[in-house]
């Protein structure tokens, strides 16, 4: 009985920690570290933002939101546009920033597999 309760509690904890959404955006015009810093700074101004990842190689910007919060596509598009870039696609995923980062790094090391 105690095992079942522990397993149920672990499942609920895992679900709660996984509830923060990851929003991945394909952004056109990212070419340098200064670009990445500007986009990251703009997105971190939103109180719902928990984490930001900018991959210059893949032209991907990923944002995680704090549990129970969201950032609308319009807010994201406006923040990116205010930083001087254009959003080509927005996708909401369950991947973590670490997973997005790992994929971006693999792609950078193996450009033929982009």
Detailed description of the structure:
With about 110 residues, this protein is α+β, with helices and mostly antiparallel strands. A four-stranded antiparallel sheet has the order 2-3-1-4, with helices on both faces. It is globular, with a radius of gyration of 16 Å. The protein is about 45% helix and about 25% strand. The longest helix has 16 residues, at about 1-15. It starts with a helix and ends in a 5-residue tail after the last helix. Mean pLDDT is about 85; it is low at about 5-20. Strand 2 (about 50-55) and strand 3 form a beta hairpin. The chain contains four helices and four strands, in the order H-E-H-E-E-H-E-H. It has one domain: 2-Layer Sandwich (Alpha-Beta Plaits), CATH 3.30.70.
Provide keyphrases for this structure.
alpha+beta, Alpha-Beta Plaits, 114 residues, 4-stranded antiparallel β-sheet
Output the radius of gyration: 16 Å
**Ends apart, CA distance between termini:** 49 Å
Helix-strand sequence: HEHEEHEH
Helix content class: 40-55%
Mean pLDDT: 83
- The neighbouring-strand order within the major sheet is 2-3-1-4
Total domain count: 1
% residues in beta strands? 15-25%
Topology diagram in text:
Elements (H helix, E strand, L loop, with lengths): L1 H16 L4 E7 L4 H12 L4 E7 L4 E6 L7 H10 L3 E8 L3 H13 L5
Antiparallel strand pairs: 1-3, 1-4, 2-3
